[in-house]
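Tutorial handout. Part one gives the primary structure; part two gives the three-dimensional structure as tokens.
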Amino acid sequence: MRRRLIIAVVSSAVAVAGFGLGGSSAYVACGGLDGCSGTSVVTATLSGTVGTRSVATVAPITMTNVTQGTTLSTTWDATVAEVTRTGTNPWSIQATLGGGHVSYLTNQIPASAFVISGATAPAPTGGGGTWAAGAGGALNNDGTTGTPLCSNTGQGTSTYTGTYDCNGTITLTPPNGTVQGAYAGTFVVTLID
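Part two.
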């Protein structure tokens, strides 16, 4: 009696944790079982008014040395503009020096040599809440941690449109041994809300 060997090929489909066979975009195809990632669509619907609030202006700062002077002082000024903006409580503006210093050729003066003082917060045009001057102080050398300039508290959930001015004095006391030269940097005013 003869025996026959029959080999049958049967196709099959397998779904394994997170892998699928259809055209669904919720599944991801990858070569192995570990380390795969996927993406999905995110949608958000905002209703009502959000509006905008931003730092509108930052005046240039120019400091000029006087003969035998050990410090340089001048003023700084910044404004914030709100346009149909839903209230936020609190919000503020802070200052840093880009990179944490000013420089001249290869020489640097650290941000901590600059001190913010005498801040004023004139009454805003429009807007809302309580606009007040910040404590000021030395700028931070890390170039990211802000020194308080002005802040607003007490805004409700209404919408606000207005302009807020904040200004004061900035003083530079160059460290001993600072090379003479025209140092430059970026005074950065950041809105925190």
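Part three, for discussion. Residues 1-27 have pLDDT under 50 and may be disordered. The chain has one domain: 52-192.
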